[in-house]
Amino acid sequence: MTNPEDRRKFLKVGTIAAAAGLAGKAMAQEGNGDLNLPNAPDAPSPIGNASAEPSIPDGSDAVAEIDGFSRFKPSRGNDPDSDYYIGKKMPGFRPASTGPAPFEAPDLDKLPWKMVNGAKEFQLVPMAVEREFLPGYRMNVYGYNGSMPGPTIEVTQGDRVRIVVTNELPEDTFVHWHGFELPVQYDGAATLTQNPIKPGQTMVFEFDVHEEGTFFYHSHVPMQEAFGQVGWFIVHPKKVYDPPVDRDFGLIFQNFFVEPTQTVADSWKMDWNWHTINGRSGPLTTPLVCKHGERVRIRLMNFAPMQHHPIHLHGHTYWETGHEGARTPSSAWIPRNNSLVGIAQATNFEFIANNPGDWIFHCHMVHHMMNHMTRQVGPRIRKGVNVDRYLQDTSTRPAVDFTRNDPGFNTPGYPQKMLGMERTMPQMEAIWNRREVRGMRANYPMAVKGLMTVLRVLPDDLYKLVMESNEPVEKGAVFAEIVRRFGDPERYEAAPKMMGMNM
Ligand SMILES: [Cu+2]
To answer: What is the annotated signal peptide range for this record (predicted)?
Structure first.
């Protein structure tokens, strides 16, 4: 859609849209049924290098197409028995000789190490932390080194590791290295294998890592696990996985129950009302941004206390290439669109990002696609519940409506649409004030909730604009540009803009 005729058609639609005018409502709300906005604002202007054709980067010996599978357009290939069917073994742009792609868990840091007496030495600190699930919702949980989940430990197969654990919790803890075949005294399985690490006490764990794979560490006190104590422990193989990937993302899925009037998670509850990915709820989950044609791996680990998650990727068919135990032999890889990831299980999703756009990546349980009852509302307010603490701080939290003035409450069962996640302007700005979301549709935060994040597949020029330049990018501009190049621009309507949001 890059020829001048198409561009003219697109711009014409934009002009009609502008004539339709614009009115908005300042507050964004979960769900979009009652926004009451006109659907025809200005289409964002063209950006980037619209005539650019997808191409192989200089220095890469990757090819554009093998056995009928194209890395640049949706395609399946010619033969289900081919190694390249649905991109199964099509390598990324990055050659294996450059080593593994760096592991990246959005919104989480890596735990630094230094070489001491032939071992990679890490300092891990179990502690109480505050984690902002969404702008304005700071929750009290347990984590490590100031973060929940804890920072990522990243090593290479064959390393010797020494992890110095200093307990800053006010109670005993244990740390288990999940999936490691190590000497039993270091297994961290509570008093079965060691004495507790007392508050203020330090314990040293040291072992050789002969495995490679997607592992994690966590407290072996059940309620501490339910309270957030987990982190990645990624072991890259000595010999880079074949085919090599360009991106290696990691996402930890968790659930919590936090009473509407509280900030302290309740680890005793078998229920949940908050969902997090790497400690953030949608839409504060940071999108996974990659370039058109790259090979991408997403490692997903479910650390929910009680909930399994069927995980769905839009716009692509991926291969399941491994789980928490090990990389799966390629003869047993399975192509899928949705994978059930059980508690304390991990799944590695690999695919060629051959379909540009903003693709949602999410748990498919409908009740996991949003947070729940995070605010006291309507008939669910219990008699005698004290909301004083909540009301003291309404500048950072949505106000509590403890009246029953809404005539809808005369209908038994009302409301069924989840209300109560209205966001203030500063909270919306916090969501938009991240590089990774530049140029997404103006209303995207209303669609990405709970256990949801976004895979952004961007043509090279748009990737540079979003991730590497400081040029301003209008909301919706990147999305509209992808529609211009790869979709049907004459049928596209840009998102309604919201007043006061400069978008
Ligand atoms: Cu789920």
So the answer is: none
